[in-house]
Design a protein that fits this description.
The complex is a heterodimer of chains A (481) and B (253). Chain A is of the alpha/beta class and 481 residues long. Helices cover 28% and strands 29% of the residues of chain A. Chain A is built from 13 helices and 19 strands. The termini of chain A are far apart. Chain B has a single domain (2-252), classed as P-loop containing nucleotide triphosphate hydrolases (Rossmann fold), CATH 3.40.50.300. The chains are: A alpha/beta (481), B alpha/beta (253). Chains A and B meet through helix 10 and helix 11 of A and helix 2, strand 7, helix 3 and strand 8 of B. The structure holds adenosine-5'-triphosphate and magnesium ion (MG). Chain B: This is Fe-S cluster assembly ATPase SufC.
């Protein structure tokens, strides 16, 4: 830090000792971001001092950083001072029945095969007390509590388990890791916390979906998963229902900490609003996801199906620190119309005999741009490290683009690295073969694309996989002919 | 059932079919033979609706409808089936999954409910016996890494599942070993009823020992230059195509 900066920082933080001037009773913070806003958010959430300090540190780091420009995406300048960083969860007037819900949304639900009850839950239609998701969530929570598993909102974790949060927060993604992570650390609204005790195998898929408070986690979501020695958990993020949000910028952070012999499987289906055909109104999704295999023989596996957002900037990564630890990344990224995706992974081999596997399937249609960006780094001490990468791109039409940016960086000669990449198009002959059997072109494309993504979809839990398949078809609707 | 009149078709500006006439009635089996490149597969593709081929003249009526007016999937749902000379690979999609999708499309077109998993599997089992195809093959990616013979057997299996009215088998016999040829041919025969019709494209009379044709046609340079009974196939086997080519070339020039 330069002397000037240091002085500046001391000066600014001093001034704040005297308090700050936003009305804590306000439901919403004024536009823009400064230390007052950070304090306001923290106060609103009644956070302990250490967390406020942590946020402020992140904020200060952020002010010194620049928005990264290296990704293969383009978008108009974001004015960070034009964003509202806190607004109280609003009690919106709930629709009384599905008749009051946007018919377009209902049509999409129908195509995804989402049950009526589920549709009501997702659209916030008031439901019978018995069917209310809260009661489902409560029984679910009791079951987990018996095993000592903690699964709650981030705010609740800060209140109930501050020592666990304090110990692990920022341990995988440090506050100044990157521009968006720093921003998130300063202003994160809420998110999920998950803790699996030693030797416990979580008996069910943990889905954010069951968590009370899941709604309104907002645009700066924070997730922390801690897997103690010998534990196992499969965690599902998101839901295949279309998610619309007025906030254009989303910058989430997910951290996974896996100790010795622990295994964490993290699956995401991302279906944020991609914008209209001309790319207007879509979500900018700038996410930092990283896991550390801290202990020997631990394993972290990322599976993602990315179909939404107008811009996706996302590289779920693994730091393979423990010996014999394993990192996996399975990804399907589908872009259509004006969507842009720059996504991939980083596998950092530090421990001995660490293994990583990358399977990336990009599908581009319309005028979209789809990039795979991945790094495999083998450090000096990582004797016997192995990586296998498979990066496939599928192009539909000739107005879209597919790009691959693999970076390989090896400091230990014993490393075995394999990289395969293919680019293909859906063949006329494949489509004709399908249509000749009675399958129309649109369905044929969906079938072929699903087949192409099979290896990744197979990694998803069953119910999720079925919905993900339908989602792929939906995203590519209108991309043929 | 099928009536082809003066059908002309070209690809990339090159005329391949130059006036085909053919009448196929329900319950009939027609064999189409002819030298390489004479246009047999082209005819099959045009009937199935492959878009690369441009029909420049003529008409095709199928079950009282203008066949050329229908999209390929509509033709298929109406009962036109093509067993491909070169079946296409679709990675990651199993034959089972593929057929389930296809069958339910056809059923929907007929106003039927989609088959549930159990009925579908029961039907599969039954049809598998017909062509003696192995379950493991059906759960693999469609045609990917299949041997030549396996691909052909799979085509006839699909035909058995979809129960078409008009089947066009394009060199389904090539690639099959002697036993497989008998099995597959018997399968085709068992699928025969008085209401459906089959067009078999083949180079070998041997197939016609099993699938006995009512008519044999010789396609040469985009035209049917000779038609006859099954004896014509025997004659061709013995004498080759030269005499027919000569006949045809002298009459056209
Ligand atoms: N895409 C194409 N472009 C140019 N010519 C083509 C194309 N497809 C087919 N042809 C030509 O059309 C002619 C007829 O081909 P077709 O496949 O119908 O023959 P066939 O009678 O089925 O032959 P075989 O017995 O070898 O299967 C051939 O000369 C072939 O080269
Ligand atoms: Mg041919």
């Amino acid at each position: 830090m330069s002397k000037d900066n240091q002085i500046l920082e001391e000066f600014t933080s001093k001034e704040y000792e005297h308090g700050w001037n936003i009305d804590i009773e306000a439901d919403q913070a004024p536009k823009g971001l400064n230390e007052d806003i950070v304090r306001f958010i923290s106060a609103k959430k009644e956070e302990p001092e250490w967390l406020l300090e942590w946020r402020l540190k992140a904020y200060r780091a952020w002010t010194k950083m620049k928005e990264p420009k290296w990704a293969n995406v383009g978008f108009p300048e974001i004015n960070y001072q034009d964003i509202i960083y806190y607004s109280a969860p609003k009690q919106k007037a709930k629709p009384k029945s599905l008749n009051e819900v946007d018919p377009e949304l209902l049509e999409t639900f129908k195509k995804l095969g989402i049950s009526l009850e589920e549709q009501k839950r997702l659209t916030g239609v008031a439901v019978d007390a018995v069917l209310d998701s809260v009661s489902v969530a409560t029984t679910f929570k009791d079951k987990l509590a018996e095993l000592g598993i903690i699964f709650c909102s981030f705010s609740e974790a800060v209140r109930e388990h501050p020592e666990l949060v304090k110990k692990h927060l920022g341990s995988v993604v440090p506050i100044s890791d990157n521009y968006f992570a720093a921003l998130n650390s300063a202003v994160f609204s809420d998110g999920s916390f998950c803790y699996i005790p030693k030797g416990v195998r979580c008996p069910m898929e943990l889905s954010t979906y069951f968590r009370i408070n899941a709604a309104n986690t907002g645009q700066f979501e924070r997730t922390l998963i801690v897997a103690e020695e010998g534990s196992y958990v499969s965690y599902l993020e998101g839901c295949t229902a279309p998610q619309r949000d007025e906030n254009q910028l989303h910058a989430a952070v997910v951290e996974i900490y896996a100790k010795k012999d622990a295994e964490v499987k993290y699956s995401t289906v991302q279906n944020w609003y991609p914008g209209d055909k001309d790319g207007k109104g879509g979500i900018y999704n700038f996410v930092t996801k990283r896991g550390i295999c801290a202990g020997d023989n631990s394993k972290i596996s990322w599976t993602q199906v990315e179909t939404g957002s107008s811009i996706t900037w996302k590289y779920p990564s693994c730091i393979l620190k423990g010996d014999n630890s394993i990192g996996e990344f399975y990804s399907v990224a589908v872009t259509n119309n004006m969507q842009q995706a720059d996504t991939g992974t980083k596998m950092i081999h530090i421990g001995k005999n660490t293994k990583s596997r990358i399977v990336s399937k990009g599908v581009s249609a319309g005028h979209s741009q789809n990039s795979y960006r991945g790094q495999v780094k083998v450090m000096k001490r990582a004797e016997g490290a192995r990586n296998f990468s498979q990066c496939d791109s599928l192009l539909m039409g000739d107005k879209c683009g597919a790009h691959t940016f693999p970076y390989i960086d090896i400091e230990n000669k014993s490393a075995q690295i394999e990289h395969e990449a293919t680019t293909s198009k859906i063949g006329e002959d494949q489509i004709f073969y399908c249509t000749q059997r009675g399958i129309d072109e649109e369905k044929a494309v969906a079938l072929i694309v699903n087949g192409y993504c099979k290896e990744v979809l197979n990694q998803l839990p069953m119910e999720f996989a079925v919905e993900a398949q339908k989602l792929l078809a939906l995203t590519l609707e209108g991309s043929v002919g | 059932m099928l009536s082809i009149k003066n059908l002309h078709a070209s690809i990339e500006g090159k005329e391949i079919l130059k006036g085909i006439n053919l009448e196929v009635k329900p319950g009939e089996v027609h064999a189409i033979m002819g030298p390489n490149g004479s246009g047999k597969s082209t005819l099959a593709s045009v009937l199935a609706g492959r878009e690369e081929y441009e029909v420049t003249a003529g008409e095709v009526t199928y079950m009282g409808q203008d066949l050329l007016d229908l999209a390929p999937e509509e033709r298929a749902r109406e009962g036109v089936f093509l067993a491909f000379q070169y079946p296409v690979e679709i990675p990651g999609v199993s034959t089972t999954n593929f057929l389930k999708t296809a069958l339910n499309e056809v059923r929907e077109h007929k106003g039927l409910e989609p088959l549930d998993a159990v009925s579908f599997l029961t039907m599969m089992k039954e049809k598998m016996k017909l062509v003696e195809i192995d379950q493991t093959l059906l759960s693999r990616s469609l045609n990917e890494g299949f041997s030549g013979g396996e691909k052909k057997r799979n085509e006839v299996f699909q035909m058995a599942m979809l129960e078409p009215k008009l089947s066009i088998l394009d060199e389904t016999d090539s690639g099959l070993d002697i036993d497989a040829l008998r099995i597959v041919a018997n399968g085709v025969n068992k699928l025969k009823t008085n209401d459906n019709a089959t067009i078999v494209v083949t180079h070998y009379q041997r197939l016609l020992d099993y699938i006995v044709p009512d008519y044999v046609h010789v396609l040469y340079k985009g035209k049917i230059v000779k038609s006859g009974s099954k004896e014509l196939a025997l004659e061709l086997e013995e004498k080759g195509y030269d005499w027919i080519k000569e006949e045809a070339d002298t009459t056209t020039t």
